[in-house]
Structures
1.
Amino acid sequence: MGLNSGFTAVLIFNLFSKDVLIIHKIHMYVNIFDNIIFFFFHGLNSKFLFILKMVNYMKLSAKLKLKFQNSSDLIVKTINNTDIIFLESLCSSDKINEYILKTLTLNREKKLNASLIAGPNIKEVINIEDATTYLLNGFTLVSKDKTYAVETKGNLVRSVQSPTAEPDINGPKDSFNESIQTNLGLIKRRIKSTDLINDDLTVGKITKTKVSILYLESIAEKQIVNQVKDKLNTINIDGILDMGNLKQLLCGENRSIFPTAQLTERPDRAASSLLEGKIVLICDASAFALIIPSFFADFINPNVDSYAKNINVNFIKVLRFLCLLISIFLPAFYLALINFNQSSIPLSLLVSFAIQRDSVPFPAFAECIFVLIVCAILRESDARFPNSYGSSISIVGALVLGEAAVSAGIVSTIMIIMIAITYITSMVFTDLELINAIRHIRFLALILTCFLGLYGLYMALFIFLIHLSGLTSVNKPYTYPLAPFDPIYFYKTLFRKPLKDDKKRSKLLTDKNYTKQGEL
C-alpha cells in the first residue's frame, strides 16, 4: 500500500484523541486514498511502464538525437566510450579538436572528470534542458558517466571596426559588434574595476537572447537598476532580435515621438555614461548598447565633445541648438510671413518674393509640403542605399529635381532655399529617432501656421515645450538639466566647462558618490 493505514490512524488518534468521530472519518478517508493510489499504479499497462523506464535510462546522446531529429547540423561522435555532441553550425572544429579530441585520444581513464578536458570554460551538465541550452549556445557536450559542456563557439561575428553611425575625428575608433562578449570586453577594457557589475538575463521564450545590465555599484542609483530589472523580467515575448526591439518594450513604443533611451555603437560613450551613474544594456546579436536614463540634452550634444577644447566645443553646442530651432520652425516661419505678416518683410525683399512666386500656381503651404515630402524621400533613399553610392544618388536627385521644379514653375526658388537650409541643419543630428521627432513637430508647426499665422507658430512652440516637459526617462525628467536646473549636468552637456573643473556627478543620477575628481 502507498500509506500505512494503522500508523496513520494511531498518529491521528494521538493528535485528536478528544474526538473519536473525527478520528473515524479521517481513518476512512485515508483508506480510500490508499486504494486509489494502489489501483492507479498497479493498473497501468506494463508496456507503458517499460517505455517510461527505457526513456529514463536512455543515454544523453540518444535523447539529444531525438530532440534534434530535424537538425542536420547535430554531430555525435564516440571516442573511448565517450560521446562528443555538438552543433556543427555554431562550433569551431579547431577548438573541438584542440580542447577535446586530442585529450580524449591520449587519455583512456575509465571515469570522466573536468580536469581531463583542456577548455577555458567548462560546465557540468545536470539535465537534458541544460544540455540543450549549452548546445544552442555553441558548447560541445562530453558525456560518459558524467556530462560536461565545453565552450567551443565558432567565430560568427564581425571583427571590431570603426563607428559608422557615430563617426568622429577625435576619440577612439572602435565600435560594438554583434558579440555580447566582445562588447562587454570593450567596456571592461576602459573600466578596469570590480565595481563594474554585469547582471545577465535571458529575454525571449524562443530566441532566449542574453541581455546584460551594466552599472557601477558604487555610483549607480539602486532604485533605477531594480526598475530596469523589473521591466526586463516582465517582458513576455517570443523573440528579441536586436537592441531596438528591447528599447521599444522598455520605453514604450508609442509613448512619445522623442527617444527616451539612447542607442550607441561607441564603447567610450557607454563607459562615460557608466561613470556618470547611468545604466548600460547590451544584448547578444546587436551592435548597439542602450543607455538609460537619457535626456533631450544628450541627443543634441554627443559625448565626443569631451575630446576637444571647451572654448571650441561651446561654439559648436550653441550652433547645434540654433540648428534645432531652424530645422523645426524655419518653414513655418517663412509660411507665416509670406501669407499673414507681409508687413514684417522689407519692401524690396517682399517684391522679390512676389516676383518669384508669380509663376507658381500652388499656394505656399502646398508648395512647402510638396518640397518637404520630396526631401524626406531623398533622405530615406540615401539612408537605405549602399554607402558606396547612396549620398551621390540623393545629391543628384536634389539638384535635378530642384532645378526642374523651378524651371517648370512648380515651386519658387526661395522655397527651395528654405527647405534646403531646413534639411542641412537637421543633418547635424545623427539619431534617427530624434530626426523623425523633429519632422513631426515641423509638420505640426506648418499646419498650425497655415491657419493662424505667427500665432500658430507660437502655439507649435508651446506644444513642443509642454510635450518635452511631460516626458520622463525611468522616472527622471526628460528636460533635465534645464528643468529642473542642475548646473553640474548643464556644464557637461549644453555648455562645457574645462575638464579640470568637472569634479562632481549629478545628484539626479547618483545618490551616494558625487565626487569624481579630487583637487589638483
Note: The mean pLDDT is 83.
2.
Amino acid sequence: MQYRSEIDGLRALAIIPVVFFHGGFSLVSGGFVGVDVFFVISGYLITLLLYKDMAKGTFSAKKFYERRIKRLFPALFFVAACCSIIAWNLYLPFDLEDFYSNLASVFNFTSNIHFYIHSGYFDPSSELNALLHTWSLTVEEQFYFVFPWILVLAFKFGRKAVWVTIVSLMIISFCLAEWRLQGKPMAAFYLLYARGWELLIGSFCALLVSDSQLLTKVSNTYRELLAWLGLAMILYATFFFTDSTPAAGRYTLIPTLGTALIILFARTDGYLGKVLSNRLLVSIGLISYSTYLWHQPMLAFSRYYMGENFDLIMAGALCLLSFVLGYASWRFIEKPFRYGSFGWNTQRRVFSAAAVLGISMFMFGIYGEEQKGFPERLDSNVRSIYQTPKHFEQIETCFITKSDAFDLSKCLDNKALGKKALIIGDSHAASLFPNLKHELKDNGWNLSMLTYARCVPFISNQDMEKYKFGSKFLSKHVNSRCENVKESFNNGISNSKFDLIIVLNHYNNWMGPYKDHSFPEFWDMYVDTLIELFGKEKLLVLGSLPIWTEDLPKLIVKDYVQGLDFKGPTFNGLFDSQGDLDEFMTQSLKQRGIRFLSSMAAFCSSEGCMRTGVSDSGDTTATTYDGAHLSSVGSKILSKHIVSTLAPYSLGKEELVSE
C-alpha cells in the first residue's frame, strides 16, 4: 500500500485539538471531533488494505490481526502498566477500584460499553478518568473483529456486493445513531453500531480509490477546491462545535465528510497536500497514537492530585508534554515492536505474548476491583470512615426503590398504642428512619415509613407534566412506576390515622431552571398537596440534609491524606445553595402556618458542618455514606435533634420548638 504523507498530516490535525480540548482550552471547543477524523482515517486504511488483499486472493486473517496487534498493543500495554503504577500510589481505594474496573474493560475490548453504562463523556468526573479515552480504541478494535469477515462474505458475491454491503451498513449505522440520539445520546456516542458509519465512510473512500474511475475525471482545480473544503469543514467543527453539539449523528457529518474529501482529493502535488505533508505535521501525525494514549492519563492524574489548583497553565504544559511522551513511546515502543523483532518475529509469539499480557492485565483489573481498591492501604484512623455503610431498612416493602407498590400490611400498624407518626418522602427520609424510629419509641411514639426513591412524592403525573422542563430529575421521573407507587401510598394513608407527619426529601433535585414555570411554583403545588392530604396541624417538614459535592467519605479521606483536619466541622465540599434553600423553605412554610425544622441545624454551626461521628460499635464513620444519604451516625444525630424538638409537643403543647 502506497504511503501517503498527507494522511499523517491529517492525523496531526486530529490529535492536536483532541489533546487541547481535553486540557480544557475553550478555543478548540469542538476538539473532540478529532476522534471522528481518526475513525474515518482508520476505516479508509484498513479497508484499503483488506480490499486489495482480497482482490488478489492473498488475504490472511492471521496476518491481518498480527499487524493490528503489533500496531496497537505494545504502546497500549506499556501506557496501561504505567497508569496502574501511578494509580496505585495516587488513588484512594474507591478511585482505585474504579480504575481497575476500567482497566479490565480495556483489555476485554469493552471499555466503550463500560463507559456508556457508568459515565458520561462530558461529565465533570470524566476529567478524572485516566482511561476514558480508550473507548474510541475499543470501537476500532470491535470494528476490526467484525468488519474483515463481513468483507470476506461480501467478496464471495463479487465486488458489486462489497459496494452494496458497505453503503448499506453505513446508512443503517447512521440511522441508528440518529435514532439513539433521541433517547440515549450516550449510546450513540459510545457504541459501535452508532459509530460504525464513520469508519465505513473511510471504507467507502477506500472503494472509490481502489475500484472506481470517478476520481480520475475530477480536474486538478476541483480536486484542490474539494480538499480545501474538507479542511474548512474539519476546522469549523473544531472551533465551533461545543460539548452540547450532538455527537455521532448528522452534525458529525461535517468533520467526517470533511475528512473524506481530504482523503479523496488531497495529493502531495497539490497545495493542501503540500501543507499536510510538511515535516512538522507528518512528525506529529506519526506519534499521534502514542500521544493519544498518554494525554488523558496525564491530565486526569494531575487534576486528581492538584484539585482546585489545577489551571490552564498546568494543562498547557501537560498537553505539550503529552507530545514529548508520545514521541518517546513511538520511538522506543511502537517502532521497535512494529518493525523490529523484539522476540515478536513469529506469528505464534505475537499472538501468545498478546494473549498472556492482555489476559494478565484483564485479570489484574478484575482482582483489583474485587478487592475494592485495597482499602487496607489506608491508615486505621480513616479506614472505618471510608467503609461507612449504607443505612436502610424495609427495602421494597416500606422503602420502594424498584417495585411499584408498598406492602402496607408491614408498613402500617393501625393497632399500635401511643402516639403515631409517619415519615414520608424519598430515599433521604428512608435513610433517617431506622434511628428516628428508635429515638421516638423511647419517647412514646410509634413511627411508620412510606418512602420511595426516584419519585416526587404525592404529585400526579398530570400535574408533573407542567414542570418536567425543570430539573433533569423532575423530567426523568414522570413515569408509570411513580404513578403506581403514589396510588399505593394514597391507599395506605386513607385507612390510617397519624398524630404527626414528618416530611423529608432531596429538595435540591427539584430545583430548576424551569422552562415555563419556577421552583417556587412547583414548591407551592407540593405544599398545597401536603395540606390537602394531611392538614397543616400534623405536618413537620424537615429541611434538606447537608449535600456534599461528592461522596463524603471520599472527601474526608482526601483531607486526611493531605494532612488536613478531617474530623472537625467544615464548609469545604458543601453545596453553596444549602442555606438559601433553608431560608426559602422557612419563609414559605411560616406563611402557611406549617412547622419547619432545619436538618442543617443538626449538623452545622458557624464553624462548619459536622462530617463524622462515633457509631454504636465505637468506629468513627461519616455522617453520610455518599454525598447525601445519612449513615447510621448521621441518622442518629438528626434523630436526636428532632426528638429534642418534639419533646414539648409530646407533652401536649401546641407548637414545636422552632429554629
Note: Strands lie at 399-400, 419-425, 445-452, 500-504, 539-542, 595-597, 604-605, 608-609, 612-614, 620-622.
